[in-house]
Amino acid sequence: MATRADIKCHNCENTFQVFWHSFENQLPIMCPYCSKELDEAMTEKLKNALGTVWNLNYHFRKNHEERKNEPLFTVDFAHVHVPIEKFDLDN
Ligand SMILES: [Zn+2]
Question: How confident is the model at residue 91 (pLDDT cuts 50, 70, 90)?
Answer without folding.
Answer: low
